[in-house]
Amino acid sequence: MAAVTRGCRSWGSLLGLLALVSAAAAAWDLTSLHCSFGTFCECDFRPDFQGLECDLAQHLAGQHLARALVVKALKAFVQDPAPTKPLVLSLHGWTGTGKSYISSLLAHYLFRDGLRSPHVHHFSPVIHFPHPSQMERYKKDLKSWVQGNLTTCGRSLFLFDEMDKLTPGLMEVLRPFLGSSWVVYGTNYRKAIFIFISNTGGEQINQVALEAWRSHRDREEIRLQELEPVISRAVLDNPHHGFWRSGIMEEHLLDALVPFLPLQRHHVRHCVLNELAQLGLEPRDEVVQAVLDSTTFFPEDEQLFSSNGCKTVASRIPFFL
């Protein structure tokens, strides 16, 4: 494989970095910080598709649909010199299937400073919007934050985590920024990227994957057309999802619903081997098997899918070394 500009990173290390950025964000005042780096904004934008595809192929286990969909959408968007709207992706699936991981990869391979870039903005309901009673203030702050940063730097990435834990009502302030109007509030915003992450639709995706397995269909035969309707319905019927009555889905402002399939035993094994390699350790069979034996699988009869995906692999390995 050809060398890449910044190299492939491990699932555990990138999620660890994402956690550090989220913790640091806890101290942020959304109304006090602005992108103030002037023309540096475009300079910080350094797309490395070769590195991204290398990392996805090497580390994102079992997600043929998500990998292909994200790379195709991202390439088309970035290579368009005059996009008519921002790129808006909504990632859906069971816990530990790679949603946060792929989001961290986008930051890493799009911006020179990755998740530390001043133009990558990560929002968590628990950290940034914890009190439903303060929703009106959150709306004002979020609108000001997005508008201010896009005014200074159109090449910005906005990550919204745990959308299924976000009090409905907040996202409606983003609706004007996500469509195909040329200018919003005096801000040119068409080169921005918005990523929304949630577990909503995960159960429905799991059911489609289980039925495919029971029908002896190959996992790679599952098509996007089978999953989009069930994900859409799960979101629209969930009054606790951040998109609830926001107009974002009703007005078709999402460019893609990205499904993440549940992970099987061999996918978890792949994650264990990757993590051992990242630690500079040999792939010892007894360690790999011990991690797999400590992982819970479902449904009860088939024991097919990992309950936590690969989410706890990095933290479990040290117990068996």
Automatic annotation (TrEMBL):
Q: Does the keyword ATP-binding apply?
A: yes
Q: What organism does the UniProt record list as the source?
A: Equus przewalskii (Przewalski's horse)
Pfam families recorded for this chain? TOR1A_C, Torsin
> What is the protein's major site of localization?
endoplasmic reticulum
The record's section on InterPro entries has:
AAA+_ATPase, ClpA/B, P-loop_NTPase, TOR1A_C, Torsin, Torsin_1/2
Question: What does the sequence similarity comment in the record state about its family?
Answer: Belongs to the ClpA/ClpB family. Torsin subfamily.
Q: Which UniProt keywords apply?
A: ATP-binding, Endoplasmic reticulum, Glycoprotein, Nucleotide-binding, Signal
Signal peptide (UniProt feature, chain positions): 1-26
Report the residue ranges that make up the AAA+ ATPase domain in this protein. Answer: 85-227
State the name under which the record lists this protein.
Torsin
Q: Which cell locations does it reside in?
A: Endoplasmic reticulum lumen
